Write a sequence for this structure.
């Protein structure tokens, strides 16, 4: 059992689309937003570098104690961002679906998830309101704010990469 998600980066006009990063673990919004924040601290805002930097950040986190082989993968990216092209990625990452990160002046996220009806699974896009609600809930999660021991994803990166994470 995993906690799967796919993450793809694009620009505002969707003329550039990155390869897809597949996370077998830590694919919930509380982890994805923490990884995206770390990516911003490392000052990577270009689509052509974003997927690579994101994968590096996730690998840093996943392999902090020992290397694993199935926690992170990469797929060829889609030609465009729509329900049809997101469907195979949403099925692959059926726990959390697809996070489409739009890089620009402000980071935006679109979400594509599996939806069931009549015994079939199709893909639906969450509304902007639903994505915002998910984001707000993620930023209240202990993975971001920390638990009683002070452990969080941001604290892990501050420990692993203090010279990078202190700037931001």
């Amino acid at each position: 059992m995993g906690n799967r998600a796919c993450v793809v980066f694009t620009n505002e006009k969707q003329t550039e689309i990155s390869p897809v990063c597949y996370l077998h673990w830590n694919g919930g919004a509380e982890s994805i937003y923490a990884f995206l924040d770390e990516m911003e601290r490392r000052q990577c805002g270009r689509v052509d570098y974003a997927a690579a930097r994101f994968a590096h950040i996730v690998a840093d986190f996943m392999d902090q104690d020992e290397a694993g082989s199935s926690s992170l993968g990469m797929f060829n990216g889609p030609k465009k961002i729509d329900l049809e092209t997101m469907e195979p990625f949403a099925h692959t990452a059926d726990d959390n679906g697809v996070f489409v990160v739009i890089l620009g002046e402000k980071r935006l996220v679109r979400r594509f998830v599996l939806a069931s009806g009549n015994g079939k699974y199709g893909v639906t896009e969450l509304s902007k309101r639903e994505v915002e609600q998910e984001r707000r809930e993620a930023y209240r999660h202990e993975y971001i704010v920390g638990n009683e021991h002070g452990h969080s994803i941001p604290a892990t990166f501050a420990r692993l990469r203090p010279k990078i994470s202190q700037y931001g």
